[in-house]
Write a structure and sequence with these properties.
Elements lengths: L6 E3 L2 E3 L3 E3 L8 H9 L5 E6 L12 E4 L2 E4 L8 H11 L6 E5 L4 H11 L7 E5 L15 H14 L4 E5 L5 H12 L5 E4 L3 E5 L1 E2 L4 E2 L7 E5 L4 H14 L5 E5 L5 H10 L3 E4 L1 H6 L3 H16 L15
Parallel strand pairs: 3-16, 4-7, 7-8, 8-9, 9-10, 10-15, 15-16
Antiparallel strand pairs: 1-2, 5-6, 6-14, 11-14, 12-13
Helix pairs in contact: 3-4, 4-5, 5-6, 6-7, 7-9
The structure holds succinic acid (SIN).
The site of succinic acid (SIN) has 13 residues, from loops.
Length: 311
């Protein structure tokens, strides 16, 4: 049986449903080229700011049983360098997406305006949910500020664009955010970013495991999958049908990808597992997803996308 795992996000066509989260292994040209050569369906560059950033002090990433914790603090090369890289990445013949995380609305608008002039760039993901910059609360937990950012970006952005959201936990918050998104020009929503400000403790050393922010950091990996799934599901119920959803959070296997698509995701991103396994993760996920689909008799993602059954 032939199984087709191609998909689409807005007007972008993807050969497979998985690519990297803007997080690990997407900061330098070498890393982005590795993604280009891999079976990732797109290349997403690390969230960029106007000026280059070293990020937070080391150690700022640690694995633990069930996931990872990080407080990277947006280390990146500055948007101008990424603008110069995109033409080189074009040879890999897959969509190129820029993650933008200005430290102010003015910065975000400056970057978006300039990025829109780069022909080789296909889309922009505005990161409204980084929990790791000291003194900068996550924008997407402030609904008025989010509305303003979306209105202003919508006024100037001439490429397909979307937003990366933090996890929400209450139906009231899903509804309020969905209303703002439905009134905006986003063509996709990426959910979820890491669970902000978790704390992992090494009992032997009686010590935190990362240095920045007193050990507090974004939690990712296997343990956050139920929250990622719930956010995808709820936003699929509430968002306009033309807004695509990219699911992220705790994807380790092809079966996890299947679950996200069943919940309503059009595509998924891989963070912690990419950090742990490297870019070969994408080929493995492809094999495993095809196996699940073959076993269930599905030949395309559309046959089960969003079709989660209720009891
Ligand atoms: C970071 O660089 O701190 C992680 C990015 C994010 O969580 O958005």
């Amino acid at each position: 049986m032939s199984v087709n795992i191609s998909t689409g996000v807005g007007t972008l066509c993807f050969a497979t449903p998985f690519f990297n989260a803007s997080g690990p292994l997407c900061t330098t040209l070498l890393e982005l080229e590795d993604l280009g050569r891999s079976e990732a369906c797109a290349i997403l560059s690390k969230s960029c700011t106007v000026e280059p950033r070293e990020g937070n002090p080391l150690p700022r990433y640690a694995d633990f049983e069930g996931g990872s914790i990080n407080s990277m603090g947006l280390p990146n090369l500055g948007y101008r360098v990424y603008m110069e890289m995109y033409p080189y990445l074009w040879r890999y013949d897959k969509p190129i997406i820029s993650s933008v995380s200005g430290l102010s609305l003015k910065d975000t608008l400056l970057i978006v305006r300039e990025m829109c002039g780069v022909d080789e760039l296909d889309a922009i993901e505005i990161n409204l949910s980084c929990p790791n910059v000291v003194g900068k609360p996550q924008v997407a937990y402030d609904f008025d500020q989010t509305r303003e950012v979306l209105q202003e970006v919508g006024r100037i952005c001439t490429k397909p664009w979307g937003v990366k959201l933090p996890p929400y936990f209450d139906f009231v918050h899903f509804e309020e955010m969905a209303k703002i998104l439905n009134e905006s020009g986003v063509s996709f929503v990426t959910c979820i970013n890491s669970l902000g400000n978790g704390l992992v403790i090494d009992a032997e050393r009686e010590c935190v495991v990362i240095k920045p922010k007193g050990g507090f950091g974004g939690v990712g990996g296997r343990m956050i999958k139920p929250i990622g799934l719930s956010n995808v599901r709820k936003f699929r119920e509430l968002l306009r049908s033309d807004i695509s959803i990219i699911g992220v959070g705790g994807i380790v296997s092809g079966r996890d990808v299947f679950e996200y698509i069943l919940a309503g995701a059009d595509a998924v991103q891989i963070g912690t597992q990419l950090q742990q396994e490297g870019v070969s993760v994408f080929a493995r996920l492809g094999r495993e997803l095809r196996e699940v689909m073959e076993r269930k008799g599905y030949s395309s993602l559309g046959e089960f996308k969003g079709k989660l059954k209720m009891l």
